TrEMBL record:
This is Gag polymerase env. It comes from the Eukaryota. InterPro entries: DNA/RNA_pol_sf (IPR043502), RT_RNaseH (IPR041373). One of its GO terms (molecular function) is RNA-directed DNA polymerase activity. It holds the Pfam family RT_RNaseH. Residues 195-211 have a biased composition (Polar residues). Residues 178-192 have a biased composition (Basic and acidic residues). SUPFAM superfamilies: DNA/RNA polymerases (SSF56672). Residues 58-167 form the Reverse transcriptase RNase H-like domain.
C-alpha cells in the first residue's frame, strides 16, 4: 500500500494515514496485525474515494494512464492535472484492476505490462478515444516505450498494436518504486489460489484469511 501514498500529496490527513500504513510493517506490532491492516486499509479507501482527491473527468485536460502488472493481476490509474492552491497536481479520476486469467498469467513480463495498457485503453475508451491531448502512458517496463514502432511482433502483439492504433498516446518509462498502480496489481484477494481437490474446507478458509479474501467474513 505504501506506493499509493504518493497520490495523497494534497490530502488533509496524509500524515495520519502514513502512520497507520507504516504500523503494518512493525515487528512485532503494538497490537493485533489484523486490526492495524484493517484500519490502514479503511483510511486509504476513504482518502482515495473522497473529495478533494478523486476528481471528475474533464475532457479539456491532459490525461495520464499509469499502469502496472504483476504475475496475477493488472492495475491502472487514470489521472489528470488540477490546480490546487495555485499549483498543478496530477490527481486520480478513476481506478481499475483485473485478475489475470490462467492463460494471461503465462504471458511474459513484457506482454503482461503491455496487456495492462491495452486493458486500460479499452476500459476507459469513452475517455481515451478522440482525446484532445496526446495521452501519456506511464509504465515501469522500459522496452514498451518503443513497442508501437517495433517491426517484429508476435500475432498477439500485432493484435494489441491494432487495438492501440486508434488512440493518440505516448509511452513513458517511470521506475517501479514511483508507480502508484503497483498496489492495485498486487491485491491479495487476486492472489488467492484455487482450492485443490485434496484440501479440506478448513484449510481453504485458513488460506483465505491469510491472503485477505473477502469471501470469508467473521460472523457479526
Amino acid at each position: 500500500m505504501a506506493p499509493l501514498l504518493n497520490l495523497l500529496k494534497t490530502g488533509k490527513n496524509k500524515k495520519e494515514i502514513r502512520v497507520k500504513v507504516q504500523q503494518t510493517n512493525v515487528v512485532p506490532p503494538p497490537f493485533p496485525l489484523f486490526k492495524i491492516v484493517l484500519e490502514a486499509f479503511k483510511a486509504l479507501k476513504e482518502a482515495f474515494t473522497s473529495a478533494p482527491l478523486l476528481r471528475y473527468f474533464d475532457k479539456n485536460k491532459p490525461m495520464r494512464v499509469e499502469t502496472d502488472a504483476s504475475a496475477f493481476a493488472i492495475g491502472v490509474i487514470l489521472t489528470q492535472q488540477f490546480k490546487i492552491d495555485g499549483h498543478l497536481h496530477w490527481l486520480p479520476v478513476a481506478y481499475y484492476s483485473k485478475k489475470l486469467l490462467d492463460t494471461e498469467t503465462r504471458y511474459g513480463t513484457g506482454e503482461q505490462e503491455l496487456f495492462a495498457i491495452v486493458e486500460a485503453m479499452h476500459h476507459w475508451r469513452h475517455y481515451c478515444r478522440g482525446a484532445r491531448h496526446p495521452i501519456v502512458v506511464l509504465t515501469d517496463h522500459a522496452n514498451l516505450v518503443w513497442f508501437m514502432t517495433t517491426p517484429n511482433l508476435t500475432r498477439r502483439q500485432l493484435k494489441w498494436a491494432e487495438k492501440l492504433a486508434e488512440y493518440d498516446f505516448n509511452v513513458t518509462y517511470r521506475e517501479g518504486k514511483k508507480n502508484p498502480a503497483d498496489g492495485l496489481s498486487r491485491r491479495p484477494d487476486y492472489e488467492l489460489p484455487k482450492a485443490s481437490t485434496t484440501s479440506t474446507a478448513a484449510e481453504t478458509v485458513r488460506q483465505s484469511f491469510r491472503l485477505g479474501s473477502n469471501d470469508y467474513k467473521p460472523v457479526q
